[in-house]
Design goal:
The protein is mainly alpha-helical. The chain folds into 2 domains: 37 residues, no CATH class; 96 residues, no CATH class. The chain is built from 6 helices and 2 strands. The chain has a two-stranded parallel ribbon. α4 links the parallel β1 and β2. It is globular, with a radius of gyration of 25 Å.
């Protein structure tokens, strides 16, 4: 009986000391579980996704609706001049997830490029679009 008690005590102490899952892995599992339980239309989901993209050095904004020619110039300027990528939302529906994603990213973009970045991109896009229209191409 003593042998079993000593063996059981040894197992309990030994198992407590050797944790096969590191703290970092444990935290990752916890984050993945939280992310997978978020409603994909919620603001929390939008913030989590935007933060994940930002941590991967990806500045992105989500577009929605039908783009016109002038708008395409704007998005092209954001990409070519500032390396801001575009994700397309399916359809015209705008939910809290998209709004919060874009708000988070806009804060990071403004912090990196200045508060007038969107005005600059818009002015340049308008100029390029109008010049192309004047030339008739």
């Amino acid at each position: 009986m003593k042998v079993y008690l000593i063996f059981a005590l040894f197992l309990i102490i030994g198992c407590r000391e050797s944790n096969p899952i590191s703290e970092k892995t444990s935290q990752k599992i916890k984050e993945d579980t939280i992310e997978n339980t978020l409603d994909p239309y919620s603001c929390d989901w939008g913030k989590v996704e935007a933060n994940k993209d930002f941590k991967n050095d990806s500045l992105m904004l989500i577009r929605f609706g039908l783009p016109d020619s002038a708008t395409n110039y704007y998005w092209h300027i954001l990409y070519s001049d500032y390396h801001i990528y575009t994700k397309f939302s399916v359809g015209c529906k705008v939910d809290q997830g998209i709004i919060c994603y874009n708000n988070f990213m806009k804060e990071k973009i403004i912090k990196k490029y200045g508060s007038d970045i969107f005005d600059k991109a818009s002015s340049k896009a308008d100029s390029l679009f109008n010049n192309k229209r004047k030339k008739g191409s």
